[in-house]
Amino acid sequence: MLAELGDEAKLLAGGQSLIPLMKLRFANPQHLVDLNFIPGASYIQEDGATLKFGALTRHAEIENSKIAAKIPILHDCAAGIADVQVRNRGTIGGSLAEADPSGDWAAVLMTLATEVRCLGTNGERTVPLPDFIQDAYSTALAHDELLSEVSVKMPPKGSGGAYIAFKRSAPVYPTASAAVQVVMDGDTCKDAAISLGCVGLMAIKAKEAEAALRGKPIDRKTIAAALEASREAADPQTDMRGSADYKRQLVGALVKQAIEIAVRRARGEQVEVSHLYA
Ligand SMILES: Cc1cc2nc3c(=O)[nH]c(=O)nc-3n(C[C@H](O)[C@H](O)[C@H](O)COP(=O)(O)OP(=O)(O)OC[C@H]3O[C@@H](n4cnc5c(N)ncnc54)[C@H](O)[C@@H]3O)c2cc1C
Fold it and tell me: Tens digit of pLDDT for each residue in 159-191?
């Protein structure tokens, strides 16, 4: 249908980004192609060492899924998106396809080995997430393609992760957020992935901050170095959520907390994570 209807057609998933944009007249598609009529587009499956999510899987389904909880950072993310109403309608596929710089899923999934499946009139292709999201509101999808599945590799043994966002209230996007995934070997951090949300046009992979942890013991000194490197990596804009300087300070504090919880989880502790509300 997308190929038939051309540029004037848009896909509708949960409608939690598209419908508000249409109400504001920022989007005015001539045709809506509703994915909600496609059976079997919503699922959470464990396939060997990979978790697979159908594009139409709602945030609330991921929040309540025992399979998704095997990667705790996925639960942190799903449970913290907006409020119950938005989580009951919004989908993981719609969130990644929208590529909103303030969206939670991209920041979290960038810390994991994530691929998205794109389906179009020319067949199927699999794209690693870092290549899929190309800019703010811009992805690798062609007009006649849809995102059909998100797949995430289970992190190796000794892994732990945490996602923390700072918000003014539940039904708004975060001011800043931090996603951290570590692999521990005793007190040494074997590997680390750190991604920053809402402080740039896309989720930012804080590579220097990752390097500050990798191969080192996690202590006050290495955490301070990672926090400082994260502030350097952030590229925030001043807006109604706060000044650029404020967001830079904030994201460092969130990275610090997320590292501490990720390490505790890697050691087998059950730690509940909740977003921070102003
Ligand atoms: C009040 C409110 C607060 C919110 N707060 C947050 C928040 O804190 N964090 C957060 O991450 N999100 C937040 N959201 C957004 C929410 O998570 C959306 O669900 C999500 O961004 C888009 O998913 P959707 O399924 O609703 O997509 P839709 O709105 O239906 O579609 C969004 C865009 O993606 C395209 N699209 C949808 N599905 C596909 C697909 N499978 N393949 C290709 N293109 C597709 C559509 O054509 C459209 O352009 C909020 C929304 C609202 C209304």
Answer: 999 999 999 998 899 999 999 999 999 999 999
Which helix (H) or strand (E) element contains residue 54? Answer: strand 50-54
**Quick one: what percent of the chain has pLDDT higher than 90?**
97
CB 145, CB 152: distance < 8 Å? no
pLDDT of residue 264: 97
Interval between CA 11 and ligand 1 midpoint (Å): 11
- Regarding the beta carbon of 177 and ligand 1, being less than 6 Å apart is answered no
Q: Which ligand 1 atom is nearest residue 104's CA?
A: 11
Asked whether 90 lines ligand 1 (CB < 6 A), one says yes
* Strand partners of residue 151: 52, 115
The answer to whether the CB of 15 is under 6 A from ligand 1 is yes
C-alpha 272/C-alpha 76 separation (Å) is: 8
SS3 string, 185-250, reads ECCEEEEEEEEEECCCCCCEECHHHHHHHCCCECCHHHHHHHHHHHHHHCCCCCECCECHHHHHHH
Is the CB–ligand 1 distance for residue 127 below 6 Å? no
